Amino acid sequence: MKRDLYGLFIPEIAVAIAEYGIESYRARQIAEWMYQRGVADFSTMTNLPLQHRQQLAAHFNSTGVTVQGQQESADGKTTKYLLAFADGAAVETVLMRQAYGNSICVSTQVGCAMGCLFCASTLGGIVRDLTGGEILAQVLYIQHQLAQQGQKVNSIVLMGAGEPLLNYDNVLRFIRLCHEKYILNLSYRNFTLSTSGIVPGIDRLCKEDLPLTLAISLHAPDNTLRSKLMPINNKYSLDEVMRAADRYASHSGRRVTYEYTLIDRVNDSVEQARQLGMLLKGKLANVNLIPVNAVPERGLLRPAKERVNSFEKALLSMGINVTVRREMGADIQAACGQLRQQVLEKNEPARL
Q: Beta strand 126-129 with 109-111: parallel, antiparallel or unpaired?
């Protein structure tokens, strides 16, 4: 079975190719072809001797992604891709063109096991983890598209399908790869990692001493409602999650973002806003309010603008930093899992 070089660091590539008598300095050339130029075919890596190219083709792969679907919002600011890997598994990746630059939302697993009531990604359950290279391939595919326009990826959010902290090693490999100068040279401060509240993973991330922004998917101000919306709360309670977030904020000195999806008549009352305010008062925290993207399979409705405004005002009156997520890509169903779910419903292979 051929080994995939895509997703390896230069020193790892050097070790892999040394077995076939290929000089270690060739590893940087191979990395530049794969990561900077987006070339997967070893035969076209023309600054390598023909013999080396033949050896590489015989013993290794360099697999990226292929596009199975693409949707662009009417305003041209959001593009959603359905990207497939070598085994046919596919995930959604979203490009968001913001005022401050281009942001990419990546998936870390094929499907999701978390079972959150408001998320389409979890409808088909979990299929498998993505490798660090597969997560990277999502970003570099879009990076190469942007480069043709003289642009680049400026920030990355790990908020697509899957729970990043349940695929910890591959996610950290991906983040460190993006930081390398020969790949994206992206500052760790330009990453936001979103978790449903995997407490051991939060504590492990704390020890990495990387200045990542941690985002906690909260979505309810009390344990009873949060358990209904997010089954993971039955394993890691709201209190445990909040303590872990406090440890992260204290250790890193960075403000934690708390994501709160507003669902009409479920978690969007002024009283619930006050409960949330009491939960977060005095903490190094931001609240990101997200009016729900309707998931027809779950019968969840988007709150009226007035209810969103009232919730926001209640938090502001308590001194809580809060923003309402600007809607991007609603016309192309840019919420996690919706494009993939459409493909599944058309009887495409179940591994998607």
A: antiparallel
Q: What is the pTM of this model?
A: 0.92
Choosing from 23, 312, 336, 348, which is the catalytic residue?
336
Residue 47: alpha-carbon gap to chain centroid: 35
Q: Among 159, 154, 166, 144, which residue's Cα sits nearest to residue 94? A: 159
Other C-beta atoms lying within 10 Å of the C-beta of residue 169? 10
Compute CA distances 18 → 5, 10, 15, 21, 231, whole Å: 13, 12, 5, 5, 48
Find residue 91's DSSP bridge partners.
83
Going by their DSSP bridges, the two strands 90-98 and 101-105 should be labelled as antiparallel
| Active-site residue, 119 included | no
DSSP 70-132: EEE-TTSSEEEEEEE-TTS-EEEEEEEEETTEEEEE--SEEE-SS--TT-GGGTT-EEEEPPH
Q: How many residues does the chain have?
A: 352
72 in active site: no
121 near 112, Cβ under 8 Å? yes
The Cα angle at residue 173 between residues 238 and 149, in degrees rounded to 5: 105
State yes or no: pLDDT of 345 exceeds 50: no
Q: For residues 300 and 263, is the Cβ–Cβ distance under 8 A?
A: yes
Per the residue annotation, which of 12, 92, 206, 208 is the catalytic one? 92
Residue located via tokens 């872990």: 244
Output DSSP code: residue 325.
P
Residue range 238-277, pLDDT digits in tens: 999 999 999 999 999 999 999 999 999 999 999 999 999 9
